[in-house]
Amino acid sequence: MKALTFQRYGKTPDIALAEVPRPTLQPDEMLVQVHAASVNPIDNMIPTGIFKAVVRLQLPATLGSDLAGVVTEVGSGVTRFKPGDAVFANIFDLGKGAIAEFAVVPESAAAAKPANLDFVQAASIPMVGLTSWQALRERAQLRAGQKVFIPAGSGGIGTFAIQLAKLLGAKVGTTTSTGNVELVRSLGADEVVDYKKQAFETVLRDYDAVLGTVRGDALEQAVGILKPGGTLVSLVGPLDAAFARARHLNFMLTFVFSMMSRSIRRLASRRQVAYSFLFARPDGEQLAQIGALLEQQHIRPVIDKVFPFEKAPEALAYLATGRAKGKVVVQMR
Q1: CATH of domain 2-125+301-331
Q2: Which has the closest alpha carbon to 240: 262, 220, 221, 219?
Q3: Model pTM score
């Protein structure tokens, strides 16, 4: 079967479609014929080797973690799905890849595809949906009446997280470019800062939570808009010691991550706010709850562009430009 693979870590990872063996199943796994798979920023980061110490892959490795498709085979221990079922899933950090003709999906990572979504729409959801859910509901414990800052509101995470935060009853602030102001407002954003005209830290005040989606100085600047007792959940690093301990990494990596995050943690501490780094985890039960919100049309997918399977490398390149409004999807069938 064909899959989008990379051969090595570094500046020349050799990303291309390649023939790979059709995977075999463990008892708790399903083989899914992939109809569509979306790409996420992490897919461009992994081949660089930046996460090599924590995301372990056997090279050559298949890229991608979001998929929607049809179950073709199930392991002996699978009870919730059968061949012919339409599913969607995130398989990030499970040693498997999604941008392929077939993918292995643990039963625990899958949910029934929302009936009102096609495969392309469904494939756009899992990573951004689970990340937003785990960051806002679990980590920040966002409540009605609170204020959350979600920068880059027109991006993949932003377009979903804004909608989820509004469902939770929060007031949402975001940043975007001039051309995307109406898009983020249509998703529910209350305070919109055009970053080409203003710096968000000069406009926004007294926020309860920040979802860190932009690298660089933006994280430190975001600390300044938080109330004492607020929460900064970063999706872009720096990694911290709590993340290392949760993944049972060795002492050396725990120390390294602690040093990497020391500056932002000190700044957060002075402001009396909490900092943490989040890697979203696959979770079929949460994905089913997200699917229900999609079926009830409380949240809608936002898709920028769909690439055919043979142009999957171009999908990654397009995502890397940072211009996508919503998600970028690769369509196999």
Answers
A1: 3.90.180.10
A2: 262
A3: 0.95
